[in-house]
Amino acid sequence: MPTTRRQFLSLAGGVTAAGTIPIVTLRPLRATPAMLNTAIRNVVGEAPIRTGKVKVDIPPLVENGNTVPMTVTVASPMTADDHVKSIHVFNEKNPQPNIANFYLGPSSGRAQVATRIRLADTQKVVAIARLSDDTFWQVAVDVVVTLAACTEEMN
Amino acid sequence: MAALINVPAKARRGDVIEIRTLTSHIMETGFRHTADGKLVPRDIITSFTCRYNGTEIFRADLFPAIAANPYLSFFAVAKESGRFEFEWIGDNGYSSTASASITVE
Amino acid sequence: MPTKADELAPYKVVGDGIPQSLTGSPGDVTRGRALVLARTTTCILCHSGPFPETRFQGDLAPDLTGAGNRWTTSQLRLRLVDASRFNAETIMPSYYRADGLARVGRNFAGKPILSAAEIEDIVAFLATLRD
Amino acid sequence: MSVWRAIAAAALVAAAPALAGEIPPDARRSGYSFMGPDTRAMQDDDTSNPGMLFVLDGEQLWGKKTGSAEKACADCHGDARSSMKGVAARYPAFDKTLGRPVTLDQRINLCRANHQKAAPLPYESRDLLALSAFVAHQSRGAAITAGDDPQAKPFVEQGRDLFMQREGQLNLACTNCHDDNFDKRLAGAPITQGQPTGYPLYRLEWQTLGSLERRLRSCMSGVRAQAYDYGSPELVALELYLMSRARGLPMETPAVRP
Q: pLDDT digit string (tens) for A54-66?
């Protein structure tokens, strides 16, 4: 075996079966630039936000906005004296401006997190890192989302 | 309901290792409506925590913009042999846990 | 499902076109452009054209650039109404037809894909597309 | 010429020329080849492939006693890793008792009815998808051979006719896109050949696992046609034709698709 192994674990949990809700519609409800700004200020407060240090990797052309791979990396030595405390990710046009907050520290070793997100349309994604000296650094990326040509509808 | 956990079985002291988790959850946004106009209530995982031998080393707040069956990848410094414990908490009292052990040489 | 084909406005094919407006009046160019770009109208799924703001355009069918040079208004109208008259194998749907179709979905049965007014708006817009 | 050689030669002749408009065997491509690198990566790694969550659930169900017979799948079939290897690559398969082909989902429910004395699992339910994903996963890498059974031939033909049949308000047949226009783009989305190599599969659009029948039904909605019911003879015939059309391609269950 290589150093990586797979652990297949079963979890107990009261989860309803997925896929049983009839097809539904998303009403045109969107975060506004003001809501995005408020969401960011809720995290950052009045502190200045500098551009740099943060990188967001999203495929150049997203094949489906319902599941978009995203990796956020911050340039940091991740030492006790100089590390990333948190990473906050926001979007411009989903119904709600927040995507996720990640809390890490020197025991992370590397300031990089990856997840899969939903993006309702082509839009801007903003990632902000809070460093151990309480400075904030950000990057904004434009993401192009392919819309499905045929959607599943009831007819 | 299942979860997929990927933690190296072995590492050298000081190695930075990648941890990946994938868990079953519909992540219903709370913004969708049924054909007859009813709002489908929100049902998401709101929080994920990873502890390494009891100490929290990574935590995430999740919002409806996280895709169904949440996937998370993050890193940790292999300090000592022991256990990683994972916990997902969500709406409607949702809670689940998993763990994985590591040998550090 | 009863056919409601008789609800369609009558039209007269002359040569390779329909010279008379389906509604009796000319279409609206601005509305026509919006319809061509709307995914639900389906034009843009297969065609591309001089639409710099629209990122995703199809490539199954000819570019619409210069359509107004290539076809007269009368020809454009018949191509939209029933393209299968020119080529039985075409993948272009007949946008103003409600009969001779199989297993049409409940919500669409007995209706043409586009209304007479929508056809006229699109014809009016396509006629403006000149090289 | 020996009898065997004559049969082999006849088989070659029968297999070689594709029908007009059909994709020749060496040009057949899985939907995988139409995807971007990130979606491929998601499928390739079992610990990042969300379809594997369903395979895990299916593995549990395989060993769970159910129905009034108090039997688990494993009680008859043993270790699925050997007993189910290659099985899904032959489905839908002709059932002699019923005199018609049955899908893997229908086979699972026939087993439940006949041997486990259990109620059928609804189409697209998590348990049915999980079980069929677990069974089909045992065929990952196996070449598709569905439709080879001579008794299945009339049903393959029926499926082929349906594939060629124009329908819906948009008056389009499956073949118009998936034989004649693959590699082109419908708006921004590439049109594939429609080779069903990875079902049940995880569609990013659905954010869950789904069956080939669900996919066929959504294509039918796309051309604004009345979709056939789950388990209908038409959908089974279409599924059988599509699998025979994908002959030789390896199974990928659980695949990931946009």
A: 999 999 889 999 9
